[in-house]
Amino acid sequence: MSPDPTTCARQDLHYLPSDLPVFSCKECGLVIALQDELCSKGFTGGSGKAFLMNSTVNTNLGKQDERRLLTGKHTCADLLCASCGSSLGWKYIKTPTAEQKYKENRFILEQAKVVKENNW
Ligand SMILES: [Zn+2]
């Protein structure tokens, strides 16, 4: 028996408990990160302020490439909303120095691309 192609192709969307503070996609409102996963607020994205996140949900990774950022040459991949495909920021794949290694496998969410929902 082969697996049902319709269930395999379906993006595995996550629905989080509604009482947790989250970040949502500005375009479609899909939950994309728990505010608890916020690592640092002091980052700058392409459009201004950005958050460094330990994890995200409901996101896809786009093209991976090398980018020259303020802090050196990084390998990053675009972070895309799994529902509407809008660009939310990027994921750090590889950083140039040991001091910056903590950013690897973490995610930048551009503040302008997300909505902060407190749910209280
Ligand atoms: Zn979206």
TrEMBL record:
Domain Yippee: 21-118
Molecular function (Gene Ontology), one example: metal ion binding
Species of origin: Kwoniella bestiolae CBS 10118
Keyword Transport: no
InterPro entries in alphabetical order: Yippee, Yippee/Mis18/Cereblon, Yippee_fam
Origin: domain of life: Eukaryota
Pfam families hit by this protein: Yippee-Mis18 (PF03226)
Keywords linked to the UniProt accession: Metal-binding, Zinc
Lineage: Eukaryota, Fungi, Dikarya, Basidiomycota, Agaricomycotina
Protein family membership: Belongs to the yippee family.
Descriptive protein name: Protein yippee-like
